[in-house]
Each structure stands twice: as C-alpha cells, then as structure tokens.
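hiii, so i know i said id send this last week but things got crazy w the move. better late than never?? heres the sequnce for the chain we talked about at the cafe, plus the structure i predicted for it. fair warning i was half asleep when i ran it
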Amino acid sequence: MKLFTKLALVSAVAVSSNAMAMQAMDDAALSSTTGQDGISIGIGISRVEIDKLHVFDGDGLAGGYNTVTVNSGVVTSTPTTAAAGAITINDVVVGAPMTAKMIPDPNDATKQIEDPSGAKTLDVTRTISATDHNLANLVIDTDGGNGSPFLNVAATVSGLDISLGKIEVNDVTSSSKAGAYVAGTGSAEILSGLSLKTGRMTANIQLGNTPQGAMIKLDGSMIGGLEINDLALKDASAGGGGYITIGGIKLKDTGTSDLALNADVAVTKEGLAVTAMKNAAGTDIYITKVVLGGGTIASGDTPFQGTGAGSASIGDVAISGMKVWNGAAGLAAIPGAANGAVITIAGH
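okay and structure toks below
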C-alpha cells in the first residue's frame, strides 16, 4: 500500500504542476509570448452630427477685386478691398451604412419588397464584417526599421452614409486678433447639399520614416463603388438664381462593381499630395438626372423638385474606362500603365 500511496502522491504533484502551467494567460503575457505586442483600438460610433462646419480664409481674395453693378444700363466697376470670409457646411451627418428594410410582399409570399414606411436597417455588406459593426479598427505598432524607425497604424474603416446640408459662403464678423473668427450673417448658397455612400475600406498610415513610400496608403476595394447623390450647384448672382443639379454619380472600376482604393497620401514640402485613380483597367463614371436650371422651385422644395421650364433632365452621362497619367509617364509616345493623378493641396 505504501508503494501505491507514493505513486498517487507523485501523480498528484505532476498533475498540479501541469495544471499550473496551462493556466490562461492574460493579453499582455500572450502578446509577449507570441511576439504580437502592439495596441489595438476599436472605435464604436454609429452616428455623428455637426450643425455647422466653418473653414475661414483670414485674408480673403488677395489683392482685392472689382464689384460690378448695372444701373439703368450703365455698368460701374468699383474697386473693393478684400475681407475675411468662410465656407460653411450645414447639417453634417456621418452614420453607419444603412439600406432599405425589406418586408414580405403582401401579394407574393416568395418575394420581398422595400418597407413602404421608408424604414432602414444596417447594411452588413458595408460594415467591417457581418459581426463587427465598429466605425473603425486600428492596429498600432512601432518598428525599429533597421535604424529608420516608424509608427505603423493599420486601419479598417466601415462603409459610411454621409449627408451634407447646404454649403454656403459667409462673411466674418470677428478678427483672429480677438481670439477667433466668427461667421457673420451675410451668406450666399453654393451647393444645396449632397449625400455620399462609401464601402468598407482599409488604410495603412506610417509616421516617422515611411518604408511603404507614402505617409498613408489606401488599399482594398470600396464594396459597391462610391455613390454621390443629390448634388446641386447654385448660381447666386443677380443674373442667375438657377441650379446645375445631378441626381447621382456612381464610380467603379471598369469590369467590376467595386472601386479599388489604390491611393497614396504624402506630405511634401509643397503641400499635401494625393495620388489616386491608379487603376490600370480604368474607371467607370455614371451620372444620372442632369438638370440645367432647376425650373421654378417652391419655398421649402429642393432644386430636384422644380417645375416648368428648366426643370427637365438633359439625360444621363456615362464615362467608361477612364485612365489617368501624371508626369513623364503620360508624355511618352506609348504610355505605360496608368499611374494616376496627383492632387496637391496647400495654403497660399
């Protein structure tokens, strides 16, 4: 019996030792063991609303301008001193991707129709995944870079529904010398507003050194392409008052239903440089319901609800297989693969 007792004791010690070794590890210990140190951040926001967004130009139109007036057929041009102004975007809404709610067709049980009440439901085809409905997920790492260290942020962003209200220009009533600019009450409408639908996208951001070749690289595909709807440009001049309206703009890659996000963003000495539209197959653009004028618009109606002369659409416009080159690549007798357009943004 003593032998069996000793064997039992040894077995118990062995089991307890192994049990201790197999205890669950916390995230920090697991990361150190597997070599997956770093920071992961999930941003859970389903809706953001901004009443007004102002972008101020502190010195206005450099050098001033001439104000032209017509009185009894006499045209007068008066030199006018430049003054600070602002671009104002009203009623900005950024929300989770939504789609029409489908319900059984009361006339055919085998079919579904859009809910006539206009109800919406989450569009999981545009979220990060079917189960992950975060606005964005960030994975942050630092790398020694063999002597050229950098910070790497890998971002996955959900598709979004974006709505912009009226876009206008305003005068400015307060100087920055007083602490801050304040938009005045004088305004003129530029755009009646627009809405955008984006698909899921990924981006990689590198700060410090940038072995990927640019500070920000957009990759992957915008599922379903990019949609811009209800765009209306207003002529607010005394001789105008009408609109150029576009019911919708759809962008996608030629031969697919998605839009590749092959773009680079770099901060150069000359400004922010964005290189985009690098798809070798080209881009398809479809523009619907183009209206020039807008017709007679009743109070409270949008430029898309005008009546009478000028309210009819001139038709749709389609552009297929558009390719873009920049620099020497586009000057060759036989250009190579399209390398995209470079857009540089800077102050002046």
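btw Residues 1-35 have pLDDT under 50 and may be disordered. thought thatd interest u
miss u guys!!
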